[in-house]
Structure to design on (154 residues):
């Protein structure tokens, strides 16, 4: 349960960070492109700098997908987060039912192993996305996860 909750917390932070980076990147490129067009008279006097700036912008456009997630990539990460949330809710319900003695140990074990296939599917999807672990986000997600379990399951 903790692993699943941690995955959800990390992906929430990761998505927020990536969307912020994407937003600032788009604003920067728009401003930079616009200033290049509007300042064309200035660039006429210094053509080498103008060519260099245009070359840099084209290079950034070519490699942007290597550093900044596309909208499609963000949708896939969001879908992964939704899978973690759904899986966690099922695990938490199973845990709650078992602790409330609404399920026997055998019933809980059977349901748990049925749910593990869902977890394996989520991990396979997670591995395909190659989401980089960012230490600061990992630490925040770990703290949020521990706080959640201390508040609701202690």
């Amino acid at each position: 349960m903790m692993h699943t909750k941690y995955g959800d917390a990390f992906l929430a932070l990761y998505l927020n960070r990536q969307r912020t980076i994407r937003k600032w990147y788009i604003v920067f490129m728009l401003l930079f492109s616009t200033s290049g067009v509007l300042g064309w008279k200035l660039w006429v006097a210094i053509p080498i700098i103008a060519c260099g700036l245009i070359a840099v912008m084209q290079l950034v456009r070519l490699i942007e997908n290597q550093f900044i997630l596309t909208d499609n990539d963000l949708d896939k990460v969001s879908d992964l987060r939704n899978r973690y949330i759904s899986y966690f809710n099922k695990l938490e319900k199973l845990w709650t039912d078992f602790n409330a003695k609404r399920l026997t140990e055998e019933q809980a074990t059977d349901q748990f192993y049925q749910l593990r296939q869902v977890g394996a599917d989520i991990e396979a999807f997670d591995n395909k996305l190659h989401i980089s672990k960012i230490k600061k986000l990992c630490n925040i997600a770990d703290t949020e996860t521990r706080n959640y379990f201390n508040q609701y399951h202690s």
Notes: The chain has six helices and no strands.
